[in-house]
Amino acid sequence: MDYNIVCIPGDGIGPEVVTEAKKVLEKVADRYGHRFSFTDILMGGASIDVHGIPLTDEAIRTAKAADAVLMGSIGGDTSTSPWYKLPPEKRPEAGLLKIRKSLNLFANLRPAVLYNELAAACPLKEEISEAGFDMMIMRELTGGLYFGERKTFEEDGQLKAIDTLTYSESEIRRIAIKGFDIAMKRRKKVTSVDKANVLDSSRLWRKVVEEVAKDYPEVTLEHMLVDNCAMQLVRDPKQFDVILTENMFGDILSDEASMVTGSIGMLASASLNDTKFGLYEPSGGSAPAIAGQGIANPIATILSAAMLLRFSLDLDKEADAIEAAVKQVLKDGYRTIDIMPQDEEGKRQVTQVGTAQMGDLICERI
Ligand code: IPM
Ligand code: MG
């Protein structure tokens, strides 16, 4: 089959890791008889440099017309990059928020898995890391504090700022349905995370999630307050299967979950709308400090490409092949710098490779 994939290389290490993911997709195409045509669009700092804004309407139209979008990362060093001298709505991140909203990508899936081979990189106690974990964070992505009304104004001689956290029943229902659907394909447990002891939006969240749960009698639902969840993620991450939560809580908890896997360079993500369409990106940032050195870990982007095949193109076998190749490459002892063991003995047992080499090694295993 022929598929049209739009790529957003973006900023920092983005272009380097997207190149490797494309390489892997080309290998999949070859091996399984598909054709992927790639079209690049600009977003973030790369778009600001050319167009003065982080995302053009033309770029959005191109993305909309694709079967799926594969993204690297956007943004630069917030204290030194000239992009951050611009007003907030013209900075790189505004492009990301705009594409999420324009493409209605309300469901953000962020898997956090501890690979056996990388258990040593897990910063938690050995008894916890040895038990392993495999969770899926389902983050609502187009509502809440990120998209509520906000303003800064002067009152009684001082500045005051307001952000608003709004959710409607339908916004909660559609993400909850996605969460339960995913749980049905996994270990059938949903932990809905909120702050219902304080926030009205959380009390509504809880009510709607309970209504949706009635349609999934096989799924166990539990509610957890967000502060407790932050604690449980480092105390006993194994207890989680699907974590279902609103935008801001999901932003914070997904970074925490990724950190306990040992490296943010390993984690993929998918942002989906209510059709098969989605935008796929590594969970890590643009890492401007190491950009252009050929040392960034491309695995998160390669695994994002696997999610793209699975969720947007229904190519499960091909997605499995990429995931298996990643596991194999780790088993064979290849590591990018971010996942190198810290101790001398550990270092002797593995081989450090760069970005392109890691891409090649994964291709060889497909
Ligand atoms: C993420 C990022 C973004 C977010 C930023 C860059 C706006 O942290 O994808 O988690 O907060 O959603
Ligand atoms: Mg974040």
Describe the protein.
- Helices cover about 40% and strands about 20% of the residues.
- By secondary structure, the chain is of the alpha/beta class.
- Strands 2-1-3-12-11-4-5-10-8-9 form a ten-stranded mixed sheet, with helices on both faces. It has a two-stranded antiparallel ribbon with strand order 6-7.
- Helix 1 (about 15-30) links the parallel strand 1 (about 1-10) and strand 2 (about 35-40).
- Helix 1 crosses helix 10 (about 300-310), helix 8 runs parallel beside helix 9 and helix 10 runs antiparallel to helix 11.
- The two termini are about 20 Å apart.
- 3-isopropylmalic acid binds next to helix 4.
- Magnesium ion (MG) binds near residues 251 and 255.
Features:
366 residues; alpha/beta; ten-stranded mixed β-sheet; two-stranded antiparallel sheet; 14 strands; 41% helix; 20% strand; binds 3-isopropylmalic acid; binds magnesium ion
What order do the helices and strands come in, and which of them pair?
Elements: E1 2-10, H1 14-32, E2 35-40, H2 45-51, H3 57-64, E3 68-73, H4 92-102, E4 107-113, H5 126-131, E5 134-140, E6 150-155, E7 158-163, H6 169-184, E8 189-194, H7 200-213, E9 220-225, H8 226-235, E10 242-245, H9 247-260, E11 270-272, E12 278-280, H10 299-311, H11 316-331, E13 334-335, H12 344-348, E14 351-352, H13 355-364
Parallel strand pairs: 1-2, 1-3, 3-12, 5-10, 8-9, 8-10, 13-14
Antiparallel strand pairs: 4-5, 4-11, 6-7, 11-12
The structure holds 3-isopropylmalic acid (IPM) and magnesium ion.
